[in-house]
Amino acid sequence: MTEDFSLKEKRYNRLITIVSIAIPLVVALLFGYKIPNAKPLSFLPPIYASINGLTAILLIAAIIAIKNGRQLIHRRLMMINIVLSALFLVMYVAYHMTSETTIFGGEGPIKFVYYFILMTHIVLSISVIPLVLITYSKVYLDDFESHRQWAKYTFPIWLYVAITGVLVYVMISPYYPY
């Protein structure tokens, strides 16, 4: 590895660390803030759940593309997934800044299933941020072997987060106040 590569990698890693800490902190802060007199954006949950579903589909399509040697398609699909994830985050925060938290109303074992899915979804959605950024940075560093190694961990976690995002929505949607 050259010094230039090492310097670039250090810069990327510093930026990845900052972004990976800042995003959850900003989301947590904004999640707790309610915009005074704002009309609830109750139309957003099905949209951002659909974005999660589309992300899951496109992640699978991207894996199929790369396994078939279609690097350009893979790269474009992964970029779309990053944009979709950012859109999801903006909509999710906007909804929670204008709406009260919805409490899951299920009883019995389904309640434990819901909270297990929700908790793993939240924890892994935070951990997937640096994983995606590191995996993506390896492409810019032309370190495709490291990219493949990181992707082995990033892909299943990101896919799980996308799928469980849809499941959480489907399970809580009957309890929304609208």
Automatic annotation (TrEMBL):
Assigned keywords, A-Z: Membrane, Transmembrane, Transmembrane helix
Matching Pfam families: DUF420
Positions of transmembrane segments: 12-35, 47-66, 78-97, 112-136, 157-176
Matches recorded under InterPro entries: DUF420
Signal peptide (residue range): none
Record bears the keyword Transmembrane: yes
Keyword Transmembrane helix listed: yes
Protein name (record): DUF420 domain-containing protein
Native organism: Flagellimonas marinaquae
Gene: yozB
